[in-house]
Specification:
heterodimer, A: alpha/beta, Rossmann fold, 2 domains, five-stranded parallel beta sheet, four-stranded parallel beta sheet, globular, B: mainly alpha, two-stranded antiparallel sheet, 2 strands, 72% helix
């Protein structure tokens, strides 16, 4: 008997505690919502959108730019009456550029913060694990960066990449242009130093195949690790190979480091293409010296002068909020917001994530990057823009109908040539 | 032959900077048995202070070492007084945790003050090189290497030729006996911490000119520096210099003759190999407590 009653007493204590905590939690959730429902209902509460960005650590550069892009998107949505008539609230965590932290962050966003919608993070390295968390929770995951082909070979159904093309296609527009140069202007040899990174490597791989097919001989091809600081030895080896074209697969810091090492070693190939770093505007020209930027090629998704719908407003809002021209990563993040917004407004609800994903797969979305559409796996189906530094400014040179300046062939650092 | 010489020279120049950065770490361990995980963060503080002096006052970043070093020394000394001294005699695990926390705090503070953007210091000679018989010697690296040699020599003179140096070595060898002959071990420890941090700051000033950096760059540095001092022998200044040169050479030789993909991994493989054959490091001394488990 005593056993029985003790057990009942224990269960009572347990039940009371559970109720107490449960009610306390409810009280917090529904203080202005009018009872029941339990979060995320159709009330006037803000729609909460969660993301975790590399605000510190190795990718802090693009991470902070992405945060600015998201904030501007949020501000503009709220100024225009919100999303489905509700204000948008961003929940931003810092993953410190760490693959483990980002998994914990997205789990917390979904499990503890119970956000209504997700937005992606920066770089393929971090989006690979983060998108898997979202996929498991069956939540739409629009990522502003993370174009590695690996991302889209996993058969994910909730992942969408809000740029024009995947990484392996990033260098193709440039490679095609090189292949179609007159015989005497076409580079005969090329070197391909590459960062060991799921984004940079496929860009180089794609371009190298296309250039080799066009008869450009590969004279150097090496991958270096992410913690490489010293590029002098790599550059020394490239110099021995004496290429006409250097096609460098880089993120930001290593792009600056390699360019500086090339200048120090007197390695000045006729043509120079670099991924990512040159798309960082002033950060790039300050890092390598403005006089050394003349003629550097890069692939890019956005240009401040592009005549895409809403672009001028975005650029103006960015300038007012943060000063200066928006970096590409801020624009990409803004576009990711636009993509999510388009899906939510078309479906008319945030409850059915499957419906949001289905809508995105079947429709085209107008963004400041131009129209975006996706295949079965969420990979975009467009082509990148090719940029080039001219007179201390980044211009668009390819394709011709989007060009803001005439394309030039040569890299002429230091004005010395 | 030219390629080999080029690789060797670049390796030695790199090693010189590593040596300067690692000297403080080994010194602090030698005297206090504190493994300063925040050492890389102090190096980046040195880099940012250099950037600030260069950007705001136009002082040449390498000449600015005259200012950077005392500033970073003061930061180090103050940090010791406030944070480290209470746990100086605590078990090593506590100090590792404490200095790791310190590194995170410094990273956050640098982010607040200077921002998490990539920062580069570019004096006029950044992109220039000396060319000697087909070899290129980047000017910034050469100046940096020379400064490293000067600072390390000063450090060596301080340790071996002065009374302060004797006091430091006495405190390192046997703190109790040092107290008996009138050395204030606590005060010596504070000075050594300051000097060690100042050496990291000088290293930071040089690296600021060589590579772009963000507050988070300290992780890559502390990994290298720990490997270097373990390789050379914890607590031995000569060992740190030797370890640093070996490490720099291993990095450039691997990059040139194996593959750049292995360049940052092979030096650690060498550290493993050395530890298997000679656990105390190349120039480290085997202590009684290492041989006889307590």
């Amino acid at each position: 008997m005593s056993y029985f009653s003790r057990r009942r007493r224990l269960s009572a204590v347990a039940l009371t505690s559970a109720l107490a905590f449960g009610l306390a939690a409810c009280g917090g959730d529904d203080s202005d919502g009018g009872g029941g429902g339990g979060g995320g209902g159709d009330s006037d509460d803000p729609i909460r959108i969660g993301t975790s960005l590399p605000l510190t650590g190795e990718f802090s550069q693009p991470g902070q730019a992405a945060e600015q892009g998201y904030q501007i998107w949020k501000n503009m949505v709220n100024e225009n009456g919100g999303l489905l008539g509700r204000d948008v609230e961003l929940v931003v965590k810092d993953d410190a550029s760490n693959q483990n932290t980002i998994v914990a962050d997205y789990n917390a966003l979904i499990g503890q913060d119970k956000v209504d919608l997700l937005l992606g993070t920066f770089s393929s390295l971090l989006n690979l694990p983060a998108s898997a968390v979202a996929e498991k929770a069956k939540m739409v995951y629009v990522e502003p960066a993370g174009g590695s082909p690996e991302m889209f070979s996993r058969g994910f159904k909730f992942l969408f990449f809000s740029q024009q093309a995947t990484a392996d296609r990033q260098g193709l527009v440039f490679a095609d242009w090189v292949a179609n140069l007159p015989e005497d202007e076409r580079p005969k040899t090329a070197a391909y130093p590459t960062l060991d990174d799921p984004f940079a490597a496929p860009v180089v791989e794609g371009a190298r195949e296309a250039l080799e097919a066009a008869g450009v001989e590969t004279v150097y091809e090496e991958t270096y690790a992410i913690d490489t600081k010293n590029f002098d030895t790599i550059v020394s080896a490239i110099k021995n190979a004496d290429p006409d074209l250097v096609f460098h697969g880089a993120q930001f810091e290593d792009g600056i480091g390699m360019t500086r090492a090339m200048l120090k070693a007197g390695l000045k190939p006729e043509m120079f293409f670099q991924t990512n770093a040159p798309s960082f505007g002033d950060q790039f020209s300050e890092g390598v010296g403005e006089e050394n930027t003349e003629g550097v090629f890069f692939a890019v998704s956005h240009h401040p002068d592009a005549e895409t719908p809403g672009n001028a407003e975005f650029v103006q809002a960015y300038e007012e909020e943060y000063g200066g021209m928006p970096p590409e990563d801020a624009a990409d993040a803004y576009a990711a917001g636009q993509v999510l917004q388009a899906a939510v407004e078309a479906v008319g609800s945030i409850e059915d994530q499957q419906a949001l994903a289905d809508w995105l797969r079947e429709n085209e979305v107008e963004t400041i990057l131009g129209p975006l559409s996706w295949d079965e796996n969420g990979a975009p189906t467009g082509e990148f823009l090719i940029g080039q530094w001219q007179g201390g400014e980044a211009q668009i040179v390819l394709p011709e109908d989007a060009a803001t300046a005439e394309i030039k062939r040569d890299w002429t650092p230091g004005g010395a040539g | 032959m030219t390629e080999l010489l080029q690789t060797l020279v670049l390796g030695l120049l790199l090693g010189g900077v590593y040596a300067l950065a690692a000297s403080g770490l080994t010194l602090i361990f030698g005297v206090m048995r504190v493994i300063n995980i925040a050492h890389g963060a102090f190096l980046i503080v040195g880099a940012f202070v250099t950037y600030w002096l260069w950007d705001s006052f136009g002082i040449d970043p390498l000449l600015a070492i005259v200012f950077t070093t005392p500033i970073v020394f003061a930061i180090g000394w103050l940090t010791y007084k406030v944070v480290v001294s209470p746990v100086r005699t605590a078990p090593m695990a506590s100090t590792v945790l404490l200095t790791f926390g310190l590194a995170l705090v410094l990273e956050g503070a640098m982010g607040e003050i200077w921002g998490n953007n990539s920062t580069a210091v570019r004096p006029s000679y950044t992109d220039e090189s000396f060319t000697i018989g087909g070899l290129f010697l980047p000017k910034a690296q050469v100046y940096g290497g020379l400064i490293a040699v000067v600072v390390l020599t000063l450090l060596w003179v301080l340790l071996t030729k002065t009374w302060l140096g004797r006091a430091i070595r006495a405190a390192a060898t046997n703190p109790a006996s040092a107290e008996l002959v009138g050395i204030k071990v606590a005060a010596v420890a504070a000075l050594v911490f300051g000097i060690g941090i100042a050496a990291a700051g000088a290293g930071g000033a040089i690296t600021a000119v060589l590579y772009p950096f963000v507050p988070g760059s300290h992780y890559a540095w502390i990994a290298r520096l720990l490997a270097i001092v373990v390789l050379g022998g914890l607590g031995s200044l000569n060992g740190a210099v030797l370890g640093a040169l070996l490490f720099g050479l291993a990095e450039t030789m691997t990059s040139a003759y194996v593959s750049p993909a292995w360049a940052t991994a092979v030096p650690y493989a060498i550290v493993f190999a050395v530890l298997l054959l000679r656990p105390q490091g190349i120039l480290g001394m085997r202590l009684r407590e290492d041989a006889v488990p307590a």
